[in-house]
Amino acid sequence: MVNNLGNYLLKNLDNDTIDFKDIIIINTIDNRIIKIHKCVAKKSLFLNNLLINENLNNFTLPFSYDSILIIRKYLYIDELSINNDNYYMLFLITDFLIIEELLLYIVTWVINNNLHCYNALFIKKMIKKTNFKIKIYHKTLQNFIDSNIINILSLDTITDIDLYDLETICYKYTNLDEKYIYEAIKKWILKNNKKNNDLLNFIKKNLLNISLLPINYIWQDVFVFLNNLSINPIENIFCWKAIEFSTFYMIHKINNKLDYAKYLWCMNLEEDCLFDYLNCNYRWVTAKIISFDPINNSPIDCALKKKIKIKTEGMPINFTTTTIIELPKDLNKIEYLFTKTKNWRVELKKKSIVDILYNSLWIRGMIVFKYNEYIVIRSSNHYYIKRTIYADSICCIGICSNYNKDNIIDYQEIDKYINFDVLSKMQMSNDYSYQDIKNLLNL
């Protein structure tokens, strides 16, 4: 019924008997005019505002006659002639006129029918600039880019993005082989006739680290490219550092900025530092550095290679061992504190059994209350203790039902009354007896 009415109005636009009070006349950028009924024009927030303000004299849309006709047809009969050649222009017109329903339709069509590696970054930028935040497709589009970033970087269309977008890619995808980053930057600089300062800025901002490239590739490609940009590798300290680090790739095997950052961190660890460690049982546990030892007959400077003695603590309660690991060879066994062990800590809940360090001894306890990251633990030595789930003095070993209840003093009658008020009154430096908890509860 609506389409029939729309068809009728559309066909009568060129009728000489039409009442000009009911229509508006729009000039196009190619010096032609388009007529549209005021009642239909109201579908556009932009045109509706002009109608309200009666500001339609000599109005010109900065688009072609043929493109606006397609949009006008949609406004009348909900039909859109969209294809790979005109979708961007239709998007621009729709965004300009602020027709939210049509904009969503166009973006849906683009995502479902025209999303490819060669235009994914362009489409992302296109959607980002719109007057509407089409959040429904942001995640879908970003997932596509994340899954295909290597292919996207390898295509020549990477040269079409602006400097900010290229820097954003270099900053975000630190897990990529640095060779993909370098090749993309190289293509972008050559295509856009950029100078040596642009490449140096990527290096100074740590968006490009040529140290992570293969040594033969540095000599045969990178240094040649630097020379073409009038950068003398021999005179730049970063080039010598790149050669030094890249020479020992077979030892450290680091080719991306993410691992490089972890390498710098782990090589600067000190005694008593805590970190996550993958033990011999393939379980991530908390480890502490006891001492450093030199590596006999190390082929490279000790600054690049270390042997450290660590103490690991895990499950069951009496599992404490001293282990020797080599850096950077065992880099994959080390992570920042609570990076790998965070999962089980976040999953801690009421009635979870934990090991807790109490007066230099590891004892067993059960979580009786939890609020956000704070927990109250009832220990096997009859005390209540307040901690956070990230405290290095706790270790998860299981659920209460999996263990003999004789290991835990059964104070269930009072456990159920422990609440946020009790938690807020407790201090982490103190332990609380059964009577102390009763006093906090005013029982």
Fold and architecture overview:
- The chain is an alpha+beta fold.
- The chain has helices spanning 2-11, 38-41, 45-53, 65-77, 87-97, 100-113, 120-128, 135-147, 149-154, 163-172, 178-191, 196-204, 215-228, 237-247, 249-252, 257-267, 342-346, 412-415, 420-425, 434-440; strands at 23-28, 33-37, 60-61, 274-278, 284-293, 306-313, 320-327, 334-335, 352-358, 361-371, 374-379, 384-388, 394-399, 431-432.
- Strands 13-9-10-11-12-14 form a six-stranded antiparallel sheet.
- Strand 9 (352-358) and strand 10 form a beta hairpin.
Produce the secondary structure layout:
Elements: H1 2-11, E1 23-28, E2 33-37, H2 38-41, H3 45-53, E3 60-61, H4 65-77, H5 87-97, H6 100-113, H7 120-128, H8 135-147, H9 149-154, H10 163-172, H11 178-191, H12 196-204, H13 215-228, H14 237-247, H15 249-252, H16 257-267, E4 274-278, E5 284-293, E6 306-313, E7 320-327, E8 334-335, H17 342-346, E9 352-358, E10 361-371, E11 374-379, E12 384-388, E13 394-399, H18 412-415, H19 420-425, E14 431-432, H20 434-440
Parallel strand pairs: 1-3
Antiparallel strand pairs: 1-2, 4-5, 4-8, 5-6, 6-7, 9-10, 9-13, 10-11, 11-12, 12-14
Helix pairs in contact: 1-4, 4-5, 5-6, 7-8
